[in-house]
Amino acid sequence: MYQLTDFLPTTQKELKLRGWDEVDVVLFSGDAYVDHPSFGAAVIGRVMEAEGLRVAIVPQPNWQDDLRDFRKMGVPRLFFAVTAGNMDSMVNHYTANKRLRSDDAYTAGGEAHKRPDYTTITYCNILKKLYPDVPIVIGGIEASLRRVTHYDYWSDRLMPSVLVDSKADFLVYGMGEKPLKALIAELKKGKKLNEITDIPQTSFLSAAIPERDVKTIELISHEECLKDKKRYASNFRYVEEESNRIHGARLVQKTGDKYVIINPLYPPWKPEEVDETYRLPFSRQPHPKYKGRPVPAYEMIKFSVNLHRGCFGGCAFCTISAHQGKFIVSRSKQSILDEVKQISRADDFKGNLSDLGGPSANMYAMQGKDLTICERCKRPSCIHPSVCHNLNIDHSELTDIYRSVDKLPGIKRSFIGSGVRYDMLLAETKDEQTAQSQREYLKELISRHVSGRLKIAPEHTSDRVLHLMRKPSFNYFYQFKKIFEQINRETGLNQQLIPYFISSHPACQNEDMAELAAITRDLNFKLEQVQDFTPTPMTLATEIYYSGYNPYTLEPVFTAKTKEEKLAQRKFFFWYKNEYYREILGDLKKMNRPDLINKLKIR
Ligand code: SF4
């Protein structure tokens, strides 16, 4: 049974229980407070606490009343910290069709509308109005991915760095522990926030570009971006490349009469640095005030373990590498096993772990063989257009983790819920040990870690669209399916593959969707896991969607954008539904594709 003092204080009463009458930092979060290492606000709060600060947290303050929630913890000694939570608030609130969602996985009881649109900006504006002299530090996915001029799909316009609209003083981007610790160390030395200009992974506004001996790239200014979509698109290449380098450049962007200064990322962290986070004293529970109203996102992950951070896939529609980085930072085996033991002691744990994963399931402990080559590399993906020869794709450490977890007392089964990159399992290698590790992993995964259905994400069947998505050729899917079925037969299992697909991605035409329908029908799939492409800040696909250009080639690229165009693509997922019959038939006739009419066997 947990005590209130096992959580960061959320009320004056809880402050008193700790014997505090003031705090160093008040942290405002758009999510419910779940004191667990998968919830960003809890991690940041606990990191600051471990640095010796007194931290209070205000989850989901009411921004529509007399603003008492913004006042209730008083004025902090150092700064206000603001995060929208684990998701961008606009992704959290709206569907791909911009329809308001009726639930929220990061709120107790799944209740919607507990945070405002553009949460970071709204919270900061309120705080600046109430306490103009108290500095604000922002972080989390929303702030991180809106750190330069970016396209905002929901208002259909370019927005400047979130620092401008929020009026926050300092932005910590990416995984926040290290930059935050460095920031706190500087503040403890007596420095003011506006005197701190050199901490990696931070961003701020400045009247001039601070003098520093660091490679600096000046991006096209915000005002120029507003005028010229092609020039705007050209910015993205630098933003992406420099965010994916071991030693990136500092980026600066003139915006109005100020410069947005974005210091480069820290080089990849060491396992012991990320292990530190998992040793913090999380209660691993939602705050007791939510009793009887489960937080859906917590219910989903409470019996899962995150093995690593980062993703070197570089998928065009995904933001993971823009936030967590391309280089994999893996936890030590001991840290993972310790967390599994903690989970196994929970009263409601019945022995099944829902995921041993990460941004991608099978990148654990992988990195370049010769890191000096990686130090000079600018590729946004280590596995597209093909698996880099310098990448070590040996899966044996990961297989060892699965087996070691399964041997722990109290563990019946461990499943893999994260997405598996099957191209890495099928990539040819001359190294026999690596090839052996791929075969062993495949067998281990399919025979022991699938809970009946394995979700994988080919995303499309057209190799042209897949190339722009930075995903592997659909041929790999055929190969993987064959192996999946073979291992199922050998082990007497009858498991299903559940493929994910996206419509309306840049470069995708209606004919590509018609072919997707025919191919997946031929493979006996009735698709369930499908989605329309949603342009979210700071992805390659979003830049193409808005500008019409590929930032790397500056060639024009088609994207289905209107509601009608999107629906015209989406309906092909559901070729078997009567209501789409006439339209699909008409489309296929117009495309002059009698072969597809035949294949889909539409009456
Ligand atoms: S050299 Fe290869 S493994 Fe290293 S970062 Fe570049 S693509 Fe990745």
Description of the molecule:
By secondary structure, the protein is an alpha/beta fold. The protein folds into three domains: 4-202, Response regulator (Rossmann fold), CATH 3.40.50.2300; 303-451, Transcription Regulator spoIIAA (2-Layer Sandwich), CATH 3.30.750; 452-603, Transcription Regulator spoIIAA (2-Layer Sandwich), CATH 3.30.750. The chain contains 25 helices and 22 strands. The strands form seven sheets. Strands 3-1-4-5-8-9-12-11-10 form a nine-stranded mixed beta sheet, with helices on both faces. Strands 20-21-22 form a three-stranded parallel beta sheet. Helix 16 (396-407) runs parallel beside helix 18 and helix 18 crosses helix 20 (475-491). The chain is globular, with a radius of gyration of 24 Å. The termini are far apart. The structure holds iron/sulfur cluster. The site of iron/sulfur cluster (SF4) has 10 residues, from helix 15.
Key phrases:
single chain; 603 residues; alpha/beta; Rossmann fold; Transcription Regulator spoIIAA; 3 domains; three-stranded parallel sheet; 22 strands; 14% strand; binds iron/sulfur cluster
Approximate shape = globular
Strand content: 5-15%
Question: Superfamily at the CATH H level of the largest domain?
Answer: Response regulator
Q: State Rg.
A: 24 Å
**Main β sheet profile:** 9 strands, mixed
In spatial order, strands of the major sheet run: 3-1-4-5-8-9-12-11-10
CATH topology-level fold name of the largest domain: Rossmann fold
Distinct ligands, ions and cofactors found in the model: iron/sulfur cluster
